[in-house]
Specification:
The structure is a homodimer. Chain A is of the alpha/beta class and about 475 residues long. Chain A has 2 domains: about 290 residues, Succinyl-CoA synthetase domains (Rossmann fold, 3-Layer(aba) Sandwich), CATH 3.40.50.261; about 170 residues, 3-Layer(aba) Sandwich (Rossmann fold). Chain A contains 18 helices and 18 strands. In chain A, the strands form 4 sheets. In chain A, strands 8-10-9-11-12-13 form a 6-stranded mixed beta sheet, sandwiched between helices. The first copy, chain A, has a 5-stranded parallel beta sheet with strand order 2-1-5-6-7, sandwiched between helices. A 5-stranded parallel beta sheet of chain A has the order 15-14-16-17-18, with helices on both faces. In chain A, helix 10 packs across helix 18, helix 15 crosses helix 17 and helix 16 packs parallel to helix 17. Chain A is elongated, with a radius of gyration of 25 Å. The first copy, chain A, starts with a helix and ends in a 6-residue tail after the last helix. The interface between A and B is large, with 92 and 93 residues.
Chain lengths: ~475, ~475
């Protein structure tokens, strides 16, 4: 395994070469190159024929670049890759990302043989390989990006992602989760640099506070477990394991050529290691943002404040189905609630149902949440907001008032109950215009550091995962 | 139990009275009244003091209305309700909705006693009660609506909903599911008219093709089972049972005062009856729209077409975790796919991964879907679309092209494989602008009769529910 400083050099290279850049902006070589220019990297195009690409001098070989180059991205047909690796070795390049595919993941003898040749060439040249069949590294602090438009903001979530597609999509999507990344690494077939090495690096990396992993298969199960356990004792880790079913494992074979293991083994291994295991894209996102924005609660008892009896019943069911509990409040709390919540069609038990009185007096939200949060039976707060459709249609200004009431509630919680996490649910709204207003409202709330979920189910899963965590974020 | 024509008169009344209408537009009496005016109902306000409300002559008592009145909505303090019921009897009113709360759901002796008095008054007056503690009936063909803004379009889904909040919210929200309603009935505490009677009515109702139920508790379990079984043999039925957990059952007690039963009993009962049981709001919506728009597949084997290796692996896992399977395609199908899908970084196994070639040639979507749908191993088609963020940012016109490619694919399927359901996934997109574009794209696709889901998980659950159905929609 490489040591920390060797890896850190790769993520913060003095210069970067892109081998296989054409002038065609729809080709991947060009996209990598443009992305690195946009990220303000010291990036050099390598192309046998062109003299200049996008205003930068092009070189026929990486060896001809008259600057330090620590990292290269290779996007040329497979047959030429071993020679480029040899040249990289001569140039002193530490690591290459190989975008080129048709290696072991193709399942063909030729593909497997080609991948073996890569590994041999890399060993001989003393160059580390990321991939093949991947998009490599995005690291804002190292001015490395995948493509034009990849977020540039330095964040604190490190994301190890075997799939290039997920790596790219999540890079864009994470804005809506309120997440920014320290590093994203798409490592494809993992013929050399693997999940465990990357995990050990991120565990040590001071830029990374939380680690997310999308992994399809590992080649050395024991080593993966040990590394995961070690890393999970230092930082919160969320693992999404692709290929957990019979069919999924077959799909993995044609995607990254990895072995997949059985669902039972994976589930047991990940949980025992102290990491959180999630099952889909939404749960991955929701759990990361819960860890990013919320304190770890001291228990699993949820206090719920919102409107609607049906919504109260459903919220309770969905919390309890996801391993949380919705306890009765103390008599004293209910008495205090009773003094501010009118009795008709409401409830001051848990969930607290403010019914339509909320729409008449939005400050009830903060007042009731404070009373519920003060109850010793409650560890976690859920505030759920429905009837956005009616608001947008009849009293659009209510959207602004609800925004302010939620901000007040969040500030009150941060001030008075910093150890009790608060999440907000914006229930589905309906018509296109209302949905668009909801997207806008959600963005503003996320920008204020509030965890917003689109359903009780998703919130309850994320909160249950958060409550299972054994360590705090640094 | 009332017979069909007695009930049908209530849903298509000659005249409607609203008892307790004030001039204050934020009061519920006024909202019911305004909603019924907007729905073009023959509606009459009853108010002791006012002579005219919203330009309509007001009457001091229902008995003073000089027109036929078959149905009344009562929104006055509990103490006055028995007298109004007595008057309704004298006027020949068939049924009343009682919005007023603080009956059995309050859990107090007084509340329980008040509810008993209601039942006695109704029996004596020969008037049926819907509620109390509910918002009653929405029936576009009968010009009955809950409130201003309640959808007026006549649809074919009948929705029996114990919760008023869910009834109102779903009335608005269903636009985004592509669903319109024949009837929505919020029936609250069910002191008289109950879920079983309503179910028997909708089973017979020619306007209703599909039935959705949100039920918290029933008072006669045996009768509920028998009615459900009978109705489920005639029409597809989706049941969301609120109060299935310990905490949820406690919440039910303070919401509609019903007994809740244990989760095991409910789950077994509903499945045995031939109805579909769902666990949350999203699954309820997703399943209803799957039944509404898709043919019942002849099996559970899914063919998947989209982009991204990681997305392919995840799709497969999530289908199989939800009881579907993702089989290998026949050699012949893969050969045909291989002729049109370039080999690099793609897959022609199932899932078919078009990688970035899709972005270069969107007609691959229809062509590949046709080949996969023609495979005898495939019963259901999922098309999933990612990278919307990149499209919106760099080639906004791609959104239009993808819309057209999806319409072509849908038309091809309807034409050549009418028995194989097709659903479309629009993966999460990220930035606010992209999310807004996605909301718009989804709306257009839903208007074209395409089932669109926001994640593979939600699609897989809905499809699995659809596949479990034992009867077709009429």
């Amino acid at each position: 395994m490489a040591n920390f400083s060797e890896f850190d050099r790769i993520f913060h290279p003095r210069g970067v070469a892109v081998v296989g850049v054409s002038s065609d902006p729809t080709k991947y070589g060009n996209m990598f190159f443009s992305g690195l220019i946009e990220a303000d990297s010291n990036v050099y195009p390598v192309n046998l024929k062109e003299k200049e690409i996008l205003g930068r001098e092009a070189y026929p070989s990486i060896k001809d670049i008259p600057h330090d180059v620590d990292y290269a991205v290779i996007s040329i047909p497979a047959s030429g890759v071993p020679k480029v690796i040899e040249d990289c070795g001569k140039k002193g390049v530490k690591a290459v990302t190989i975008y080129t595919a048709e290696y072991s993941e193709s399942g063909t003898k030729e593909g497997i043989k080609r991948e073996k040749e890569l590994v041999d060439a890399a060993k001989k040249a003393n160059v580390r390989i990321i991939g093949p069949n991947c998009i490599g590294i995005c690291c804002p602090s190292g001015r490395l990006s995948f493509f034009p438009g990849t977020p540039k903001e330095e964040g604190d979530v490190g994301f190890i992602c075997q799939s290039g597609g997920h790596a790219e999509e999540f890079a864009y999507e994470a804005e809506s989760w309120g997440i920014t990344f320290s590093k994203i690494i798409s490592y494809g077939n993992a013929c050399d640099v693997n999940c465990e090495e990357l995990l050990a690096y991120l565990a040590e990396d001071p830029e990374t506070k939380i680690i997310g992993i999308y992994v399809e298969g590992v080649k050395d199960g024991r080593r993966f477990i040990d590394t995961l356990k070690d890393a999970a004792s230092q930082k919160p880790i969320v693992v999404w394991k692709g290929g957990i079913t019979k069919g999924g494992s077959r799909a993995v074979a044609s995607h990254t050529g990895s072995l997949a293991g059985s669902p039972e083994i994976w589930s047991a291994v990940i949980k025992q290691s102290g990491a959180i295991m999630v099952n889909d894209r939404d749960e991955f996102a929701d759990t990361l943002s819960a860890i990013r924005y919320l304190s770890r609660p001291s228990g699993e008892r949820v206090g719920i404040v919102g409107t609607g009896g049906g919504a109260s019943v459903a919220s309770t069911d969905l919390c309890e189905m996801n391993g949380l509990s919705v306890p009765l409040l103390e008599e004293k709390t209910m008495e205090e609630l009773g003094k501010i919540v009118p009795p008709l069609g409401t409830s001051v038990k848990n969930p607290v149902d403010l019914s339509y009185f909320l729409m008449q007096n939005f400050s009830l939200l903060e007042e009731c949440t404070e009373l519920v949060a003060g109850d010793p039976n409650v560890d976690i707060l859920i505030v759920h907001i429905g009837h956005l459709g009616r608001m947008v249609k009849f009293r659009p200004s209510d959207i602004e008032i609800i925004f302010e009431a939620l901000i007040d509630t969040k500030e009150m919680m941060a001030d008075k109950f910093p150890k009790k996490p608060l999440v907000v649910i914006l229930h589905p709204a309906g018509s296109m215009n209302v949905e668009i207003e909801k997207v806008k409202l959600k963005k503003r709330l996320v920008e204020e550091g509030i965890c917003v979920y689109p359903s009780i189910s998703r919130a309850a899963r994320a909160l249950s995962n958060l409550a299972s965590l054994e360590i705090e974020v640094e």
